[in-house]
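USER:
Before I trust my own judgement here, I would like a peer's view. Write it directly below this note and I will take it from there.

ASSISTANT:
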Amino acid sequence: MITLLVVAGIALLIAIGYMNHVVENNKLEKARTRIELNDRLRRCGEITETFPGQLMTAELKLLLTRLELNVCQRLLSLEKSDAAMKERIAELNALVAQGESIPVNNPPAPIQTEAKAKDVRFLLEALHGQITRAAHDGFLPTNEAKRWIREVRHLLVLLHIEFFNNLGQHALQQNQPGQARLAFERGVQYLRKQQDPKVYAEQLDYLEKLLARANAQVMDNIAPADGEVNQLTEGLKDAEADADWKKKVVYD
């Protein structure tokens, strides 16, 4: 009898320890999930608010709103009494209901410096991560996720086109055709390396014309220097002829 009681006591202690372990694991998993979801919510908000208006479309805005709504709903399931979250979910639901009529208020932000280009590239990388994660969670269907991944790559190309164009145009305005030529040349090379250059044929033609224009200005700036050398050469010839004349007078 005593042995049975001891065995039962040990089994009870083991069961209690196991239950405590399960409870602690659940708490840790819940905390980890909450941290991850809050990070995703922050990233969604950053992309939505700071993405350049010239690259933001209603369709992209709608996607970002849907992604944020999904994250908010999952957070609410962890904290069912969060009134602020409930209010935000109601706002997001109202925006999603508008479809592609959703308002897009992002102001244009010209990509004129390498630092700005990097900032936008980081936003695109974050967007890529959000899409991939949503597909992994089953929120986005695979076909839709793949389509958006292609769109992110397209936006990255548009980012580079704008950057190289603005960089070259600024150099031309500053009367620096050499720098402009370098910027346009980088843009042309970038587009030629794309998997399907035909998609960007119009932009490539535009940058090639700008490259030719900058190159012509560089050559024009070199031409006067050649002229100066020619004048110097002619001056030396005149001096030599004058010296020969003087020698002839002396020896005659």
Q: What stands out?
A: The radius of gyration is 34 Å.
